[in-house]
Write a structure and sequence with these properties.
single chain; 394 residues; mainly beta; 4-stranded antiparallel β-sheet; 34 strands
């Protein structure tokens, strides 16, 4: 009996080591979010968590499900500075927590998360808000507790105007803002559990040009909303004054996908609409990125200016006095000293769904990116990839 148990343990260890020796190849140029963590830029892609060294401007590591992530498709990142913990929101695996290369207990439906499908995470002053397709889960950090404690799950029955929350922010003024196709729901952190304390701003009761909110960004007491018909700028928590940027004021008559304040209070933005079913961005303009200075002057850079080839920008973030633009298919661009870098991308496979694999006579591997069926796939249907052991060609 002891021999049988010993053999079982040996076989388990051997199989575990065999799994660890596998190498997973994924596409990491389609980016959902980025975050500065331990001096490196962590990049949320649909093929894992990619690491970028801003000094060498090289990609240094990729974490996948083999390394311990609960899902390969990473949708949102946030940081708990006081604990040096990186929060990794996934499409189907909840929120992973990484602290100094150690995986902590993840936040999933098992411990109270409304849904394992995470769209956005916000953290400020011990409070964590997680946006999902089924509402908002709010957790609090307590010293000595092994994982954040669930404070409240909020959905359309307990304060929200829509269950599918696209983006979420916590302002320094203590308010939680949740964006959806029904406008903005917000509440002060002290009144989370009070149904009547939740308020909604939409096109009918405010100056918002559209109730469809694509993105939120807070900076000090300012807040900006990217909507389907322009940008709305206001102050929290009273919303007493509004500035609207739309086709009558500086902007094209198109949907705005993303907004961001820089340290000069300039407002950066991206045109576009996001299709969450097909995982695609549409942008009928030739403007890749724009900047509104002093609320009156507009600067724009075209796709040609940025050397982008048939790919759109997904978002922007200010890191170390540089603006990082992350794309949907062509990696990163960096704006420093009023100049954009060339696109910086990984040499990776063209897609994550594989239909067929074959080796040629030179031991080069050939892969058809796709799936069985006639409909296009969001993470496949991307042509053919080949790999010679060093470089991918797509």
């Amino acid at each position: 009996m002891r021999i049988f148990i010993l053999l079982s343990i040996i076989l388990f260890i051997v199989s575990l080591n065999s799994i660890q020796n596998w190498e997973l190849y994924t596409n990491t140029n389609h980016i959902f979010d980025i975050q500065n963590y331990n001096g490196k830029i962590q990049i949320a892609t649909w093929g894992g968590l990619l690491e970028f060294d801003p000094i060498s401007e090289e990609f240094t590591n990729t974490l996948t499900t083999i390394d311990g992530l609960t899902d390969l498709d990473i949708r949102s990142l946030a940081l708990i500075p006081e604990q040096n913990t990186l929060l990794v929101g996934t499409d189907r695996g909840g929120v992973n927590r990484i602290q100094d290369d150690e995986y902590l207990i993840p936040l999933t439906e098992t411990i109270g998360l409304l849904s394992n499908s995470v769209n956005s995470i916000a953290y400020y002053d011990s409070l964590m808000a997680i946006a999902t397709d089924d509402g908002v889960s709010i957790f609090a950090e307590y010293p000595g507790f092994p994982f954040p404690f669930l404070v409240k799950n909020v959905n359309i029955e307990t304060g929200l105007s829509s269950n599918k929350i696209i983006d979420i922010e916590i302002s320094v003024t203590g308010y939680i803002f949740a964006a959806s196709d029904a406008g903005i729901d917000y509440v002060h952190r002290d009144s989370i559990n009070i149904y009547e304390a939740w308020h909604n701003i939409n096109q009918n009761n405010s100056s918002l040009p559209s109730s469809k909110i694509n993105d939120i960004h807070c900076y000090e007491d300012k807040i900006a909303f990217a909507t389907a018909e322009g940008i709305a700028l206001s102050t929290t928590p009273d919303f007493s004054e509004w500035i609207i940027f739309d086709e009558s004021n500086l902007l094209e008559p198109e949907s705005v996908l993303h907004v961001m304040f820089d340290l000069n209070n300039d407002l950066w933005f991206l045109y576009g609409s996001w299709d969450d079913e097909q995982l695609e961005i549409s942008n009928p303009t030739d403007i890749a990125v724009g900047r509104i200075r002093s609320e009156t002057e507009l600067d724009t850079w075209s796709f040609l200016d940025l050397n982008l080839e048939n790919y759109y920008l997904k978002g922007l973030q200010l890191i170390n006095n540089s603006i990082y633009a992350y794309t949907w298919g062509q990696g990163l661009l960096i704006f420093t000293e009023n100049q954009w870098s060339e696109p910086i991308s990984t040499n990776s496979i063209g897609a994550n769904l594989i239909k067929d694999i074959i080796f040629d006579n030179n031991n080069k591997i050939w892969i058809t990116n796709g799936h069985k069926g006639y409909l296009a796939s969001s993470t496949g249907t991307k042509g053919v990839s080949s790999y010679d052991g060093v470089n991918w060609e797509n």
